[in-house]
């Protein structure tokens, strides 16, 4: 996951995936690169409906770091997501590419480490040392949650001291514009620490301070 919003081969055209769930058609739109993830999402929606009954118009379903909203439109159930290019608190988009991209990257990180994650929602806060986002070498460490809306994450420079007065608070989705590569580690559980060299994930330390990230990854 680089500073670009998508991988190079993500310049593909849009595609639309659909699935009949019950007596309704559910529709997902994304770049072709994420067609497999779109199918997984539709499978998840089918499971939700099977377990909890018909998904209502306007239903919100959290999947990892993001929330998907199901809206009835033109006789179909269209799945939309917060619009991270504008204001995800008020705006939605039928293009699920960004939501699926981040979720794919986070899943890959957890699967590589073979651990269970703990989601940090797009609207949760992360504490950032002032100027750290522009530094080449940074680290992220996740502590226990202080309360609702707190992801437990801190981002700071690997080198140098940080004064307590030099801390800022960001919503997690804001990192998409400032340092998108770091979003791949934000589903790691409390006690974990990740080190980046530029956009490259260099190391992941577990709760025992052991580097568990494959060196040749």
Task: Explain this structure.
The chain has 217 residues and is α+β, with helices and mostly antiparallel strands. 18% of the residues lie in helices and 34% in strands. The protein has three helices and twelve strands. It has helices spanning 35-52, 97-113, 175-178; strands spanning 14-21, 24-31, 59-63, 66-73, 76-82, 92-93, 125-129, 137-142, 150-157, 167-171, 193-197, 200-205. Strands 1, 2, 3, 4, 5 and 6 form a six-stranded mixed sheet that branches. It has a six-stranded mixed sheet with strand order 10-7-9-8-11-12, with no helix packed on it. β3 (59-63) and β4 (66-73) form a beta hairpin. The chain is elongated. Residues 2-6 have low confidence and may be disordered.
